[in-house]
Design goal:
This protein is mainly alpha-helical. The chain has nine helices and no strands. The termini are far apart.
């Protein structure tokens, strides 16, 4: 097989450009969050930012390449991007995908809010850092629904399923998919734990809350990726981040004015 046919290179570059834009979008948020650390680096700030962008371009080039390669081997896909690249048109069923993705997010969001209220009743409250402007949170969400989905769904879930297929010597087994969803949901929690630690001291209750809520989100995102493609999990992730990290904090600020 020639290198031209190993993966769909058009999709590769679409995802790479999207990830680069999301990395640039999160820079204002990271500057606010890590300013004290960044100013101690013995390099001019523009050089530090440029090196960070270049590092991420290299990293995501590798992640996207192997993500596309492995996802093809385990029957996962970027369904709508593939249709667009092939036909140069947006499929009519994309509306159904958006509707289903948002509905999944609404049901899951309602469940998470109810669970979080239970934690609030026992005194466990975690608030967003109000020192960071809302517009920076809004830009940072692009990293979540683009780069995190590429890393955690396209690459990580495809890799876990591929490894399980090789170890268990089975293919197209739903139990392997379910097991992979559980494993990657746990990794999704680990991925978000440092962010929680930056806002509040970790206790067993805080850790349990983080595990539970992020596992629920992770299972939903991975299920949508499995059943409808990467774009579906991206839509659900975008909906969740905009509401939880932008609209709700904005409403809190408005009420407190």
């Amino acid at each position: 097989m020639s290198i031209k046919n190993i993966i769909n290179w058009k999709i590769f570059f679409i995802l790479l450009v999207a990830s680069i834009l999301s990395i640039i979008a999160i820079l204002p948020y990271m500057l606010s969050l890590q300013w004290d650390i960044l100013i101690q680096i013995p390099l001019p700030l523009p050089v530090v930012l440029l090196l960070s962008i270049i590092q991420n371009i290299v990293l995501f080039s590798i992640i996207i390449f192997f993500g596309l390669l492995l996802s093809k081997k385990v029957w996962l896909w970027t369904r709508y991007l593939e249709k667009y690249v092939k036909n140069k048109t947006i499929s009519l069923d994309i509306k159904k995908m958006f509707k289903k993705s948002v509905l999944f997010w609404l049901w899951t969001g309602a469940l998470i809010i109810l669970i979080d209220l239970l934690f609030v009743n026992i005194g466990v409250v975690i608030l967003e850092d109000t020192s960071i402007p809302i517009w920076q949170w809004a830009l940072a969400t692009f990293y979540g629904w683009i780069s995190e989905e590429i890393l955690l769904r396209l690459f990580l879930m495809s890799l876990v399923i591929w490894i399980l297929n090789k170890v268990l010597k089975q293919k197209e087994n739903n139990w392997i998919i379910y097991f992979a969803i559980i494993i990657t949901a746990i990794l999704f929690w680990v991925w978000h734990l440092p962010a929680v630690a930056s806002m509040i001291d970790l206790t067993p209750v805080i850790i349990f809350r983080t595990i539970l809520l992020n596992a629920i989100w992770g299972i939903v995102f991975w299920y949508l990726y499995w059943k409808q493609g990467l774009e579906s999990s991206m839509v659900a992730h975008f909906s969740a981040d905009i509401v939880l990290h932008v609209l709700l904090p904005a409403m809190v600020l408005f009420v407190n004015i």
